[in-house]
Amino acid sequence: MKADIQTIEAKTAGSVDLADHIFGLEPRADILHRVVQWQLNKRQAGTHQAKTRGEINRTGKKYGNQKGGGGARHGSRRSGIFIGGGKAFGPRSRSHETDLPKKVRALGLRHALSAKVKSSELIILDKTEVAEAKTKALKAAFVKLGLDNALIIDGAEVNKGFAAAARNIPHIDVLPVQGINVYDVLRHKKLVLTKAAVEALEARFK
Rounded to two decimals, what is the model's pTM? Predict the structure, then answer.
């Protein structure tokens, strides 16, 4: 399929052929959900931990008489039923990461790209070079392009001036093509790919 290429000044700069096996698939919500869930699980720190009764620094001495107290026959203040006692089934430090085959991850990215094409939320730029690396100038350019919430994917290296100018603009993220991922693609309204990014993606999924 063909897609128009635009410049940063929102002018036409030709067209590009997009590979159907990357950008022309019918998006499947189940695959996208699996990949997003895998990403979110993987990034969880898993450092939460509550003390069990074996880790509480409290006496284990029986603090009352067996009979005559008028209450239950407790033997330790470390029990979870007391304030300051141990947690019976509290969180423990662990990895939340789940397994997902590489082929499913790759397929998920292709479905995410296809979803952006199908919903007309994909923009192709010729390059991310700006005459003046200023946030104000870049923000004005984004207004012309209709970008208020976008993920911008450049080639192997992001233009430093462009990245620095875009850094302070809310809801705009700039990544090299190696950093493209399903979660970031889906959570932004628009996806912007440079010609270099398109070529790199087609080489990756050749």
Answer: 0.82
